[in-house]
């Protein structure tokens, strides 16, 4: 094994292998013979700043042209689906929120909707709970798209947008913290409703955010849209048309950027989306530029939805009335941190034997879910997020499968990358917006 | 978890019992009955002091759905019956539950059925939303179920196809030629359940490491885990903890 300035090299049966950790491309390939070694295989990742976590790409290159691209996933597999089978139904929320960590509210909502459908209580969910779910999901969609904008900007060399995107996302995480107590991994949307009511303080913050955001969006567009490098790097890059998308199962902004206005909020509505007013943005070109335009437009549509949801918030319960399902206690901050509110403790210990029984049964054992199976899908920031849940009639899920849009969408990478330049692999991969936590589960 | 009748087991691994309805041709509708409520605190009897110890929770058996199914389900069935001559041979059972239509398909026919579902003008299930596995250990001889969720974007409909295979012969045709999106999802089902999709271009593990042994999401595969010490107390791994079921 010899070491040149940047790359160490060694001979193997398959040819010469270079290990590259950075540096100048010319220096790296200076050791190869361009006449005899026409094709080189480059392994990118799993630790690489532009692979969104731990995605590994294996690229076969001819010069700078990608001839074959294969992606390898699974580095972040945490066995969440298997683990769910050993916890009760409510505890599931805490697990699924950790899958796609940029869109936790969507994971939780899809799970809650599936459990409610199994229980047959879909129609009993209170209006306020549903409105809060919509509110939270749309805020989450904005924050997820902001991270997409930030990271994609960074990967294409626009560092400022990275700072701006994360800065604005911080406002939303702040709002989430006010409402759920946590910035991520909320376990806020639970089967039967939501864990806590929205405090007034959060409403003020959301209104402030809505007032501030249009100006910021304009700023992003001023920064990127007219900018020649950004345009060159995104227009006509990583094109995938509607036929390709549908065959490969690609949904979400990538499908809409190819021109098909397929959005489950409109086409197969849930959570009362049919009663809200919003548009489904599309773009005719199916390239990275189109996906950028669609996502920016979706942030604006989500803001409209947040505004409407705020106007609809009427006082009322945020959990189903059924005491055999509803989590018994409202949480409160005490001297020793967050826990059951003192009123609740006083009630179960001093006044109501029945409340005590319900509390004990729900906390230790959980509720029973009638046997059967359902599939529920919602429109997550990355596309169709589906939950296939099977119950055996017990207190624990028998099987829960997540149809993760990140996992399915990543299959499009070879179709986008092959025949293009290596630099466009980054742009194409970023435009799919994969989140490996969701992909590998 | 303990099964209804039997001896204690190790590591929370459910012990297979004689399949219920194994002789019938159609695959099981339900997973085996939940052990919830039995064997609490290690008690193998009823543990009952109330006099109601003989009470057994009944599960409504899912009947084969009878016509009319309601909604678009009848149209889908009629269209498939018309477009696919081998319908009676291929479809083992039709189930309508919770507003969802499930067609139980004989495993060797699954690719043909998908082809018709996608191409027939009255069906047009262009998108294969999801392919996943489920292990009905103890309820079914053909315990490995593959569940396909097809979506018609044109008509805005969804249909579930379900095919069941046994562990001894876990083979069924791949649908990747019809729905390329099934590629990774079939690999996941292979990885997690050991279901072999014949004709898949590259059926390898996808989430687990290549040299992994066993198929982790099968019900007889233990969860595993190590005890964790927290503030001086030892917390058992989740599958060994005392269960209140």
End-to-end distance of chain A: 38 Å
Shape of chain A: globular
CATH architecture of chain B: 2-Layer Sandwich
Number of strands of chain B: 9
| Number of structurally distinct domains of chain B | 1
Tell me the series of helices and strands of chain B, N- to C-terminal: HHEEHEEEEHEEE
CATH class categorisation of chain B:
Alpha Beta
Sheet of most strands of chain A: 3 strands, antiparallel
CATH architecture group name of the largest domain in chain A: Orthogonal Bundle
Structural class of chain B: alpha/beta
* CATH topology tier name of the largest domain in chain A: Cytochrome-c3 Hydrogenase, chain B
Report the major sheet of chain B: 5 strands, mixed
Averaging pLDDT over every residue of chain B, what do you get? 80
Oligomer: heterodimer
Descriptive terms for the model:
heterodimer; A: 441 residues; alpha+beta; Cytochrome-c3 Hydrogenase, chain B; 2 domains; 3-stranded antiparallel sheet; 13 strands; 46% helix; B: 245 residues; alpha/beta; Beta Polymerase, domain 2; 5-stranded mixed sheet; two-stranded parallel sheet; 9 strands; globular; disordered N terminus; NADH_UbQ_OxRdtase_49kDa_CS (chain A); NAD binding (chain A); NADH dehydrogenase (quinone) (non-electrogenic) activity (chain A); cell membrane (chain A)
How is this structure best described in words?
With 441 residues, chain A is an alpha+beta fold. Chain A has 2 domains: 80-321 and 367-440, Cytochrome-c3 Hydrogenase, chain B; 331-364, no CATH class. Helix content of chain A is 46%, strand content 16%. Chain A has 18 helices and 13 strands. Chain A has helices at 25-29, 80-84, 92-96, 104-119, 127-155, 159-180, 200-224, 228-234, 242-248, 253-257, 264-267, 288-312, 342-351, 353-364, 405-409, 413-417, 422-432, 436-440, and strands at residues 2-3, 7-12, 15-20, 39-44, 56-62, 65-72, 189-190, 193-194, 331-334, 337-340, 372-380, 383-391, 399-403. In chain A, the strands form 5 sheets. Chain A has a 3-stranded antiparallel β-sheet, with no helix packed on it. In chain A, α6 (159-180) runs antiparallel to α7 (200-224) and α7 (200-224) runs antiparallel to α12. Chain A is globular and about 85 Å long. Chain A starts with a strand and ends with a helix. The model of chain A has no long low-confidence stretch (mean pLDDT 86). Chain B has one domain: 2-Layer Sandwich (Beta Polymerase, domain 2), CATH 3.30.460.80. Chain B has 4 helices and 9 strands. Chain B has a 5-stranded mixed β-sheet. In chain B, strands 6-7 form a two-stranded parallel sheet. A two-stranded antiparallel ribbon of chain B has the order 8-9. Chain B starts with 72 loop residues before the first helix and ends in a 10-residue tail after the last strand. In chain B, 40% of the residues are buried. The model of chain B is unreliable at 1-9 and 18-24 (pLDDT under 50). The interface between A and B is large, with 52 and 51 residues. Chain B: Residues 103-225 form the NADH:ubiquinone oxidoreductase 30kDa subunit domain. Chain B: It is found in: Cell membrane. Chain B: Residues 11-21 have a biased composition (Low complexity). Chain B: Its main location: membrane.
């Amino acid at each position: 094994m010899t070491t040149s300035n940047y790359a160490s090299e060694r001979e193997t049966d398959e040819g010469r292998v270079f290990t590259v950790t950075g540096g100048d491309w010319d220096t790296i390939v200076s050791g190869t013979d361009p006449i005899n070694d026409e094709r080189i295989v480059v392994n990118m990742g799993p630790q690489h700043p532009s692979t969104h976590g731990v995605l590994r790409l294996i690229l076969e290159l001819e010069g700078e042209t990608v001839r074959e691209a294969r992606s390898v996933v699974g580095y972040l597999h945490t066995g969440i689906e298997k683990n769910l089978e050993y916890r009760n139904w409510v505890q599931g929320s805490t697990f699924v929120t950790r899958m796609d960590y940029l869109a936790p509210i969507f994971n939780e909502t899809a799970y809650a909707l599936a459990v409610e459908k199994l229980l047959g209580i879909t129609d009993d969910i209170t209006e306020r709970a549903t409105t809060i779910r919509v509110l939270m999901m749309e805020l989450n969609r904005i924050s997820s798209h902001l991270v997409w904008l930030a990271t994609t900007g960074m990967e294409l060399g626009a560092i400022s947008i990275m700072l701006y995107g994360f800065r604005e996302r911080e406002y939303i995480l702040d709002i989430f913290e006010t409402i759920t107590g946590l910035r991520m991994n909320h376990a806020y949307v639970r089967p039967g409703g939501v864990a806590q009511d929205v405090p007034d303080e959060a409403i003020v913050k959301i209104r402030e955010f809505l007032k501030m955001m249009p100006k910021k969006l304009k700023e992003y567009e001023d920064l990127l849209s007219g900018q020649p490098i950004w345009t060159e790097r995104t227009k006509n890059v990583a094109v995938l048309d509607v036929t390709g998308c549908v065959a490969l199962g690609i949904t979400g902004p990538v499908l809409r950027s190819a021109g098909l206005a397929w959005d489950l909020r409109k086409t197969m509505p849930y959570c009362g989306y049919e009663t809200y007013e919003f548009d489904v943005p599309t773009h005719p070109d199916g390239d990275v530029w189109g996906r950028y335009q669609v996502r920016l437009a979706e942030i604006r549509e989500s803001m409209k939805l947040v505004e409407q949801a705020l106007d609809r918030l009427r006082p009322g319960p945020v959990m189903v009335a059924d005491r055999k399902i509803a989590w018994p206690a409202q949480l409160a901050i005490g001297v020793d941190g967050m826990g059951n509110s003192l009123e609740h403790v006083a009630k179960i210990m001093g006044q109501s034997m029945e409340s005590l029984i319900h509390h004990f049964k729900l906390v230790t054992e959980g509720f029973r879910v009638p046997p059967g199976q359902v599939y529920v899908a919602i429109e997550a920031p990355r596309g169709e997020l589906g939950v296939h849940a099977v119950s055996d009639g017990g207190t624990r899920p028998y099987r829960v499968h997540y149809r993760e849009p990140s996992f399915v969408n990543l299959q499009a990478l070879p179709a986008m990358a092959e025949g293009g330049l290596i630099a466009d692999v980054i742009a194409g991969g970023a435009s799919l917006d994969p989140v490996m936590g969701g992909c590998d589960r | 978890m303990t099964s209804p009748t039997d001896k204690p087991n190790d590591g929370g691994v459910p012990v297979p019992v004689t399949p219920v309805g194994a002789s019938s041709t159609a695959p099981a509708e339900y997973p085996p009955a939940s052990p919830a409520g039995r064997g609490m605190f290690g008690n193998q009897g009823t543990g009952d002091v109330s006099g109601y110890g003989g009470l057994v929770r009944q599960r409504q058996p899912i009947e084969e759905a009878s016509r009319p199914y309601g909604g678009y389900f009848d149209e889908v069935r009629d269209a498939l019956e018309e477009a696919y001559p081998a319908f009676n041979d291929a479809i083992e059972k039709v189930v309508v539950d919770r507003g969802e239509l499930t067609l139980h398909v004989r495993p060797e026919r699954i690719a043909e059925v998908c082809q018709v579902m996608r191409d027939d003008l009255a069906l047009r299930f262009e998108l294969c939303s999801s392919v996943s596995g489920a292990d009905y250990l103890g309820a079914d001889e053909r315990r490995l179920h593959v569940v396909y969720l097809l979506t018609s974007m044109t008509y805005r409909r969804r249909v579930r196809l379900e095919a069941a295979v046994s562990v001894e012969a876990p083979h069924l045709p791949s649908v990747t030629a019809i729905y390329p999106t099934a590629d990774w999802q079939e690999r996941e089902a292979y990885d997690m359940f050991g279901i072999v999709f014949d004709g898949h271009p590259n059926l390898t593990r996808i989430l687990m490491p290549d040299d992994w042994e066993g198929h982790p999401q099968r019900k007889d595969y233990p969860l595993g885990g190590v005890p964790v010490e927290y503030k001086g107390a030892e917390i058992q791994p989740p599958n060994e903890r005392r269960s209140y079921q």
